Task: structure prediction
Amino acid sequence: MAKFCFFLLFISLIFIPCALSRSLSSSSHPHSQFFDVAKSLEKTTQVLSPTTFQQEAIKTTHFNSSSISVSIYPRSALVKPNHKDYSTLTLSRLERDSTRVTSLTMKLQFSLSNFTHSDLKPVNNMLQPEDLQTPITSGASQGSGEYFTRLGLGEPAKEFYMVLDTGSDITWVQCEPCSDCYQQSDPIYNPSGSTTYSRISCDAAQCTALEVSACGTQSCLYQVSYGDGSFTVGEFATETVSFGKSGSFPKVAVGCGHDNEGLFVGAAGLLALGGGALSLPTQIKASSFSYCLVDRDSASSSTLEFNSARPGASVTAPLLRNSRRSTFFYVGLTGISVGGKMLSIPASVFQMDGSGNGGIIVDSGTAVTRLQSSAYNALRDSFRKLTTNLPSGGQFALFDTCYDLSSMKRVSVPTVAFHFSGGKSLPLHPKNYLIPVDSAGKFCLAFAPTEGSLSIIGNIQQQGTRVSYDLANNLVGFSPDNC
Result:
């Protein structure tokens, strides 16, 4: 069949090649596939065009007894990039991404140390703007999260754009009165306008579950800090959370941030989808949730769904937990193949040890997949050997393997696939591992090494794939082309 498809490809340029097949059977994986260079470069110019976010493009939220669905938008649909060209936009994204990885690594290492919640104290004095390096300017350049969703808060409900984050457990929103708030697209939330806003007492279970908390005027105060010095501080309260006009959940613990500084420009706050006790899925007792991330240069949107059935064609892998850090969603990865050949990487590289070190997580907020250096080097070296026919493009920021495809409209590239415990494998589309870094035709291999023990599957590799977290059965599902 593969030979027949190749023959048809040879005689007809409009025939869709079998090399693009995303078959789930490892035996049917092709060794190479075609990558549409021209289409990818076209998006790099569109994302910088002076268009505005279209409210009428919002998809209808639906709710029934078993599932909820809300729209997800790439960051550029809400916060238009303010960069002179795509190269500087890419540098900004990579800087933001490195900050994200540092933050996740710090969270894990902190959990694995001997510190306890009682050792943590909130800041005694609210930081002033000058204590950070121009927080609003920094926020504009660093951006907020990569993807947003629309969430309703309060009764009557007011809707806000919130950053989607599987690496966090505390959902929070900027609140009036503001001691220091960054610029956001929506009006700042005013809790006095809601009949269901209720402060959490200092001895309540939700307060004691916080990593950093304090007691102020008989109510719980929270603080969440991020890797670049950004933070949010305010009251911890319960509020009604709604998904459109037809479904809501009462008494969900959220942070009402009165001092929020750093990297969150655009969004009103953060929607925490982690695995901890205070995350939204845990609080609403969701048995599962899933999302599909469109290309971040796209103007289209997809959905975030709770309690919906996993697509039947999903590639499933074990969902693993770290007893020392319940936030992160680890996945049972056993290996990676390039060009149809498994890389010589010891299985232990992707495994979590007894002390909670190592392993690989799936994260919605990290863009570039980070692999331990030995695994990354094996992937890079194998990819380079199979692409000697492509002109080198040198390096770009954290990418050390780039190609100059400026004179090409379509190229053949080696396949890349993730292989999971249980024998299932996920072949990636070329756009999930070869990305443009400018509008002139420079593309780079979208993986990077990390010296830490934690590896991360980032959202570039997830784009165009519905990622399902089956919390009841401890499975992660990947469904390509299911946005």
Notes: Residues 334 and 393 are 31 Å apart (CA to CA). The first helix runs from residue 2 to 11. DSSP finds nine helices and 31 strands in the chain. The radius of gyration is 22 Å.
